[in-house]
Design goal:
Layout lengths: L1 H9 L1 H17 L7 H15 L4 H26 L16 E9 L4 E6 L2 E7 L10 E8 L2 E6 L1 H7 L1
Parallel strand pairs: 3-5
Antiparallel strand pairs: 1-2, 1-4, 2-3, 4-5
Helix pairs in contact: 1-2, 2-3, 3-4
Length: 159
Amino acid sequence: MDGLASLITSNPVVFWLIVAILAGVIEASTAGLFSVWFAIGALVTMLPAWLGVSFNAQIAVFIAASALALVFTRPFFKRVLRVANTPTNADMLIGEKAAVTAEIDNIAEHGRVLAGGLDWEARSADGSKIEKGAIVKILELRGVTLIVEKTTKEKQEEK
């Protein structure tokens, strides 16, 4: 602890540079925006440290600069670093037709359809049973399960 106190009093600019570097390293090792604000605050605080301002004032500048960096730069970073949802090949099945290969029964938690040349687990969107051989429309993909509904033709034949 004496070494840190000595560093702060003898060369506070170096101290704030070390804080900025450590915050940058922590930021690089995390997935989200976490400590970049502190790195910016530490870099800004190097100026009052160089001018010989008291350490208490440097701490106040560090807190204020970090808070301002968070408020003013976070929207920019979130917009620039936004990760877009990349559609997969499976997403292309939504809206397509599929053939029921095993009765769909949500209560029994079973049902299979053939869609896009592949066999998929399926569930009915409205909870109704759908018999084997029916043609269904794919509404959504939840994990590896297709959520389907009977096609209009199939619904009309039931009536």
